[in-house]
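Session log. Operator J.P. requested a structure for one protein chain; no other inputs attached. Running the standard single-chain path with token output.
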Amino acid sequence: MKKSKISALLLSAIIAGSIFTGCTDEEEKNESAPELPASTADNHEESKAPESTGDTSSEDETSSSEESKPEQDFIKIKSYKLGKDYKKQDALVVTYEWTNIEEKAASFMLTIFDKAYQNGIELESAIGVDGVDAQKQMNDIKPGITYEVTVAFVLQDKSDVSIECTDMLGYEMYLEQTLSLKDL
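Structure written below.
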């Protein structure tokens, strides 16, 4: 399911790119665009901060994990809990706090590629989980705005889950965190 999601997103991006490429005037083609500096104050991609290990958990929701690596400060896991999908299968419900650091409006779905692994195997996306609004993943938000997005994954068992968030092509790791399900 994730592969078809990626394929559809890449195809959409290619089509959109080709549409906008053909929409320039002849005069604009001859002008060169000004070069932007390689590093700006608004570029948060190079700054990293470790995840807080303070315990602010409730009975079924936790906002930190025992094992975490340094992360990009524009994407973090705000909380996670257990839920059930439409087939009554156990699901992990993860809420991200994401800030758009792009120069124009963008959506979580087209900016961040998130995966969950359990026992070294990628988990499927869960469908029909209470509290998960798939539309929020597709909503564009303006630059600098922080937005909460909730996703869900079908669990294999109650072992730890490793979450990875990368750029859409998987080249740059934004977040890598292990979530413990023991106390949920």
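Operator note: The two ends are 27 Å apart (CA to CA).
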